[in-house]
Specification:
heterodimer; A: alpha/beta; Rossmann fold; six-stranded mixed beta sheet; four-stranded antiparallel beta sheet; about 25% strand; B: about 260 residues; MetI-like fold; 2 domains; binds adenosine-5'-triphosphate; binds magnesium ion
């Protein structure tokens, strides 16, 4: 990987004030993410992973430092950085098809819109569920809709905050496959948060382990395993243990 | 069979009440001038609706009274919605607006609606103005409060999802906030329309020449209990019909009203 990074975090710091309480959540977080990379943020609960993701998305402004995408400073939300939320953030009054078309509607003419929506519904395996409402489909299907409605916008970076956290193990593995094949197909870039070490090692090209209070990047671990990865493979298991140990030692410090 | 029972059940109590009524008035347990027999109510109603105006007291006044009352309810409720919806959205969205309005509105809300009546009569005189004011005053609060709490309860994730997909803050009111809060907004509108009819009658009791409330008051002074009952029934039916119409038209106009809540 050469050339300029696609996404660049430069000394990002964030402080939350609750009345008199000052909570330093992020302190000087810097890292570069190249195009086509899948990068995972891993860390204990409350270390600021979601906060960092929300800053990259533009929902939140950092107190110091900034984030650049393609060399341009991020100041507001935009469809070049799309987020898949942990909780269910589909529009409950819109059908699956209408949800997927929601953002795309503003970006393409009507004729292409319909065929594009169908194409993405097919990609995530929901072609026959277009007319269902979100509450009529399962959690795993809802997350696939959430994925489709942002991928159709062709974001430069896909942000995901524990996107598969609420799913059972089997569905989660299916989602992993789907995610990896979609990212490979489009040479997509992603920055995602998870609690699950195995998920991190399965999906990521790089794992950023964060420390807590204030949140910093403590380790930047490349995952040089070839794909598809076998979670029973020796190297895979060893890497999982290594990352796990790193997280555990963090718990003592915090 | 079970289905038929379920459909008849809501009408069981009205049927029993009607039977009791027939019994009480038929046996002369209550004098006719206090509780007329049901058939006399029906006759009074048909005279009220179809009678040649002037041929008898109240003959043929129905359409005029209903129109007058409908206009007053529509105007009052319309004002309440025009003020309550936007203010509700603003205060649901913006903590500054919320705290700016809270003392004033909570104070005004604590005042029983009926105590506005003397003030309204002093300001607007007897007639349209007073009634519309009272209706608007009463209907405003359910509309405002439900809209505000509905909008306030919209998950921030929905707004953020909208923002990242290119929906600006102004347009998100229409495309995200209102649909997401629709179940509560609709509940507020229905409550508001309900109290509109109550305060319509209050406003019309003050001596306006026409309207359903005026008919009831007028009939009381002439000792026509049958006409009072006719008026009450007409108001009940109008209230129910307007509620159905409101719900149906919201469901026709907004898919959010069709698809969530309820
Ligand atoms: N809007 C806010 N106002 C005040 N404090 C906040 C706010 N958002 C987050 N925090 C605080 O910042 C810290 C980091 O929160 P964040 O949600 O980023 O953690 P996280 O790493 O995503 O945790 P988890 O893994 O549990 O989701 C927490 O201590 C939290 O209390
Ligand atoms: Mg989080």
């Amino acid at each position: 990987m050469t050339g300029r990074p696609l996404l660049s975090l430069k000394g990002v710091s964030k402080v939350f004030r609750n009345g008199g309480d000052v909570l330093e959540v992020l302190s000087g977080v810097s890292c570069d993410i190249m195009e086509g990379e899948q990068v995972c943020l891993l860390g204990r609960s409350g270390c600021g992973k979601s906060t960092l993701l929300r800053i990259v998305a533009g929902f939140l402004l950092p107190d110091a430092g900034h984030v650049e995408i393609g060399g341009e400073r991020i100041t507001a939300p935009g469809s070049d950085r799309c987020m898949v939320f942990q909780e269910d953030a589909l529009f409950p009054w819109l059908t699956v098809r209408e949800n997927v078309a929601f953002g795309a509607r503003r970006k393409m003419p009507r004729g292409t819109l319909d065929s594009e929506v169908n194409r993405y519904l097919e990609k995530v395996g929901l072609a026959s569920f277009g007319d269902y409402l979100p509450r009529q489909i399962s959690g795993g299907m809802q997350q696939r809709v959430a994925l489709a409605r942002v991928l159709i916008l062709r974001p430069r970076v896909l942000l995901m905050d524990e996107p598969f956290g609420a799913l059972d193990a089997l569905t989660r593995r299916e989602m992993h496959k789907l995610f990896l094949s979609l990212m490979k197909e489009t040479n997509g870039t992603s920055l995602f948060v998870t609690h699950d070490v195995e998920e991190a090692v399965t999906l990521a090209d790089r794992i950023l382990v964060m420390s807590r209070t204030p949140g910093r990047i403590r380790a930047d671990i490349p995952v040089a395993l070839c794909r598809p990865r076998d979670r029973f493979d020796g190297t895979f298991v060893r890497l999982c243990r290594e990352v796990q140990d790193l997280l555990a030692s963090e718990a003592v410090i915090a | 069979m079970r289905n038929a029972t379920a459909r008849l059940l809501p009408w069981l109590l009205p049927a029993l009440l009607l039977a009791a009524w027939v019994l009480v008035s038929g046996m002369g347990w209550m004098p006719g001038y206090l509780l007329p027999e049901p058939w006399r109510i029906v006759r009074s109603f048909s005279i009220y609706v179809f009678g040649q105006p002037g041929s008898a007291p109240y003959a043929g006044r129905f359409s005029g009274d209903v129109m007058a009352s409908l206009v007053r309810v529509a105007l009052g409720f319309g004002v309440a919605v025009l003020l309550g919806l936007p203010l509700g959205v603003l205060s649901g969205r913006n903590p500054t607006v919320r705290s700016l309005l809270s003392t004033t509105l909570d104070g005004a809300r604590a005042v029983p609606g009926i105590s506005w009546l003397p003030l309204a009569m002093a300001w607007f005189g007897i007639g349209l103005g007073t009634t519309v004011f009272l209706v608007a005053m009463a209907a405003f609060f359910p509309v405002y409060l439900n809209t505000a709490s509905g909008v306030r309860g919209v998950s921030p994730a929905l707004c953020q999802a909208g923002a990242m997909m290119g929906v600006g803050p102004l347009r998100s009111v229409w495309t995200i906030l209102l649909p997401a809060a629709m179940p509560q907004i609709l509940a507020g509108l229905r409550l508001g329309l309900g109290v509109s009819w109550a305060y319509l009658v209050l406003g019309e009791l003050t001596g306006v020449p026409n309207g359903l409330g005026a008919v009831i008051m007028d009939a009381r002074m002439l000792g026509r209990v049958d006409i009072i009952i006719v008026g009450i029934v007409v108001i009940a039916v109008m209230g129910r019909l307007s509620d159905l119409l409101l719900t149906a038209s919201m469901q026709i106009c907004f898919r959010s009203a069709r698809r969530i809540g309820g």
